[in-house]
DNA sequence: CACTCGTGGAT
DNA sequence: TATCCAAGAGT
């Protein structure tokens, strides 16, 4: 029994709460908009606050309500999400918005929220607590870390989750559960950080068992992860004489699903065979895009060519320069574009490159 | 349960 | 440069 009290954390939160675009300040009795809470929580899944801020502002400016978002075009939303990663979130975001709009609003219970696309245990609990002030047990990476340290639990994740959740449940207060949920996350983000935690100024420093044992910095323990293999691929960046780009919308399922990109080979651990989308004078761009995904490193070789607009293969399309924005592309495709454009602007050097 | 699924900043 | 990591969900 560590003796940690939710009241002590809330007192700290009342003074030190971060000011965030989706957040209602503590103590003012204001009510958070479920739409904004939901949108921010989905964006924040495995994503830093710094990366989310501008996306959140842009989305809520373009689509101020869930009904506005539900009425948006799929490709428009995917383009706005470009660069934020985990694109299944954007696909599920639209499905969820349309379900909520059809139902006339967000469900106000964890169970109801859990039935919606893209809302899992964490997000359901977070919306339930923050938007509806219910005493849900919010378990995310921050809470896991704080609990592991507070109770000096050395069991490695993910196996330790049930044990950590039990500790979190015992601490969750009936009063101000929404503020409490955000307080634990602020504590984890600003004081009880993964590396070099600032235990000296922690509101829970007295009851923290890991601090007493000097083990805080090493917790939570985690099972080692697999090494990332290297995959190889070729992408073909083609442009017509009038400046249109040859592109594809990737299939809904799988990596970068639903996003725009350059046609090319599959990405495999073996060296790829050339597979141009149409015949043209493809030449080596003289550079490769390197990009690291969650579970593999990619080395993407690039080919560039001027192409004939009259023969666009099935499944591909020509995007006029006026409609083309690199910021609408996932990062690896934007990297490929930057390198390919550089190669197109300096023609005639390929024989000297290698 | 183990794996897929992005990205950029910190170290 | 390489690794870790961040308000996880879906299969």
From TrEMBL:
InterPro entries: DNA_glycosylase (IPR011257), Endonuclease-III-like_CS2 (IPR004036), Endonuclease3_FeS-loop_motif (IPR003651), Endouclease-III_FeS-bd_BS (IPR004035), HhH-GPD_domain (IPR003265), HhH_base_excis_C (IPR023170), HhH_motif (IPR000445), MIG/MutY (IPR044298). It comes from the Bacteria. Signal peptide: none annotated. GO terms for molecular function: 4 iron, 4 sulfur cluster binding; 8-oxo-7,8-dihydroguanine DNA N-glycosylase activity; adenine/guanine mispair binding; metal ion binding; oxidized purine DNA binding; purine-specific mismatch base pair DNA N-glycosylase activity. One of its GO terms (biological process) is base-excision repair. Adenine glycosylase active on G-A mispairs. MutY also corrects error-prone DNA synthesis past GO lesions which are due to the oxidatively damaged form of guanine: 7,8-dihydro-8-oxoguanine (8-oxo-dGTP). Belongs to the Nth/MutY family. This is Adenine DNA glycosylase. The gene is mutY.
